[in-house]
Amino acid sequence: MIHHTFEFKGKTINYQDEGSGEVTLVLLHGYMNSLEVWKYFVMEYMNSMRVIAVDLIGHGESQIVEEISTMELQAQMVKSLLDKLGVKHCVMCGHSMGGMITLAFAEYYPQMLKGYCLMNSQALADNEKGKNNRLRACELIDNDRIKFIVDFIPNLFAKENRIKYSSEIEELKSIALNTPKQGIIAAQKGMIHRKDRCNVLAQSTCPVLFISGKEDIRIDTETLYAQACFPAHSETMILPTGHMSLIEDELKVKIRLRDFTNMCFNV
What we know:
10 helices, about 45% helix
């Protein structure tokens, strides 16, 4: 698979664009990940649809744009990419932080979405405790980025899955270790500044798919169920996973997301 680049606000952004056809799926990865986490999704989907994956600002091979990578800035970057590629309509799937960016995109560019998926993600803003935790994380990253990454990544998986997916955990650590400190901190600050977008869910006229893990210590299923009541058309998939459902239950997620994407283009 070939990587491409384009320029956004004078900085280089890395992306993949595979497959063809009217049905288009856009994949946005999570915090300290890169488009590489979607590689098996892209390999399978490219035979039946157009699939676009992008390294978010300050992640993977994409450069840092501003001191704070707000969700709005990231959404603007994705919009610029889709305009460059001539994409008029798509289904967007965002994992974790990618879901927060998806919601920002849904607020500002709803006409482009046939549907969207929030995977291990949700619409609420951080409360004061959450903001303080992120500020502490910024300090930890600044003081010892490697220790922060080594401690952070395994906790994204359900406890019972950490041995089973030990090689995947090491791969995610490697991706995170290649993410520059400034990019990691800029993303944390962006999540601190994000706003509540439950109203975006409530105003959504397109289908919304929620995928979540029962063992996700970052987002509980009660939060997901409450938010799933907002859109006019919502679907939920609850899996026995932690925060990395796309890895911990890859086959089921691939099938469900593919079916959802096709459905959105046929309603």
